[in-house]
Each structure stands twice: as structure tokens, then as C-alpha cells.
Amino acid sequence: MTRVLSVDDDELVAKAIRSSLCAFGHEVDIATTGRDGLAKVMVGSYDVVTLDRVLPDLDGLAVLLTMRSVGIMTPVLLVSAMSAIDERVRSLRAGGDDYLTKPFSADEMAARVDVLARRGSVASSAAPRLALGALECDLLAHAARFHGRALDMLPTEQRILEYMMRHPGQLLTRTMIFEGVWGYRFDPGTNVIDVHVSRLRNKLAQAGASPAIRTVRGTGYMLSE
């Protein structure tokens, strides 16, 4: 039986999703806030997550980016009333696996959930990892290695490195890093990101790791070989 987590702030919609998916033989849990959804997905073993794009506390993309940054690769179906192409592209580039526009039919949602569940079962047969040159991140163990040698990383440094390795060669603003790693908006009055990135950069340099974190003055950071 496929286990599904439905994250939607509209309880009527969430219950309708649960009812329709249960009718197709799925087991469905409900979360009505982004933080509740994150809490459930962190401790639960789900095959698919349906995630509303707009939530009252955390933006759906912030929830998605947080999941991916901590190594949760459960397939995610974004559900939204926003049908613009750029919204679909943003959601998919943030780590979403599919995008369904409201209103939708129960049959279509069930079919998309089935496809994602099958895709997830195939992907789970291989240990997820990220690699950039000789630098590797094991997303299950939350560990980093360079040429097979373990790097001593604090949990936050590890999460930042994983997030950067998901976006190699891309300019990452401080806001993007903060939302991707911590799951909420960056306070421009704090230098917490700069402190963590500086420590991460020093550890990579001390290990002789070739990927370099480059500072883009006044904007953010970029990880490249």
C-alpha cells in the first residue's frame, strides 16, 4: 500500500484528497501547515508527498527545499491554483517531481501519485549521493568525503554543502541558502550564513578539496570545480 502525506492548509481540500486517494487503495496522512508537514515527513516513511504551493506559514517551495536539503528524496507532487509556466518551472527546479493545477480530477491525481510511487521505489534501490569531482555527499548518512576520506562537518555545514552541491555553478543568494537550509526567510540583519559558509570553505580548503566556494560580493556564493 502506498503511503501518502497530503500537505494543504484547506482542510476540505486535504480531506477530499485523502478520500479520493484512499478510494484508490492508498493510505493518506494530512498536514495543514508547512511546519506540520515537515515534522511528519521527517519522522514518517512516505512514498509520495502532495504539497500545496501556498501555505500559511511556510511557502510550499521552502518546505520542498528543506526536504531536499536534509536528504529527503521522497517524490513530491506540487498542487497549486497557479498555472503559469514560470511557477511550474520554479517548482520543478526546486526539487519537485510533478505539478498538478487546481481544480483537478481524482483519477488524475491518483494516476500521478501511482507514477511517482513507482519512480520512488526504483530510485530507492540505489543509495542517494551527490558528487562534484572527488567530493561526495552521502544523503542517507549526511556525511561528506573527498577522495573517499571523511570530512569533519557540523550538521549545518553539511546541509549547506549538500544544498550547494545540488546547484553547482549557480549563484546562490543568501536568501536562497537560508530558505533552502533552514526553511524560512533570511533576516538581512544577521551574518549567520556568512559565518557557516566561511567555516565550510576553510574545511574544504584544509582537506584539499577542489570544489571552491566563491563569494559574489553583495549577492551570495557559488560552488564550482
Automatic annotation (TrEMBL):
Keyword Phosphoprotein: yes
Modified residues (4-aspartylphosphate): D52
UniProt xrefs under InterPro entries: CheY-like_superfamily, OmpR/PhoB-type_DNA-bd, Sig_transdc_resp-reg_receiver, WalR-like, WH-like_DNA-bd_sf
Alphabetized UniProt keyword annotations: DNA-binding, Phosphoprotein
Domain of life: Bacteria
OmpR/PhoB-type domain span: 127-225
DNA-binding region: 127-225
Domain Response regulatory: from-to ranges: 3-117
Signal sequence region: none
UniProt-listed PANTHER family: REGULATOR OF RPOS, TWO-COMPONENT RESPONSE REGULATOR
Protein name: Response regulator transcription factor
Organism: Paraburkholderia denitrificans
